[in-house]
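Predict the 3D structure for this chain.
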Amino acid sequence: MFLRALFALPLYSAMLIYMIHPAWMQWAQMPLPVWLRWLGVAAGLATLPLLLWLFGHIGKNISETVLTKESQQLVVSGPYRWVRHPLYTAATIALFALSLVAANWFMAAMVLMIAALLPALTAQEEEHLLGKFGERYRDYMKQPGRFLPRLQLMKP
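Done. Predicted structure below.
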């Protein structure tokens, strides 16, 4: 929780400040080519259908922390069929895309630091999921990748 607050609060504060008055974040401005900023727009927009898809599948099973809920069910459909933590992937892409659109190195640095912490965060989350779902979750972990789909090489 401490590390989340340490990096997420500055990131969300910077985004809010940028939305309210972009000039207040001018100190963190970085020169980016227009095409790269438009790439950020496209990447951010591309995450919207993914977010709708994954929220549609996870439903009430979403948790605000790494802890599991008493009524939580194991979701293995939709994007969870290919990726165990698609919300983290989509959020990272969307937030990094926003930092490109804003051409803001501070936001980009915060997103990258949060992304660097995600393996440790998801390891904790998966320990709780293993505790709740046991072998079902252990078997599930063998199929989809953690943040990206696993590449399956064709066997001869």
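The chain has five helices and no strands.
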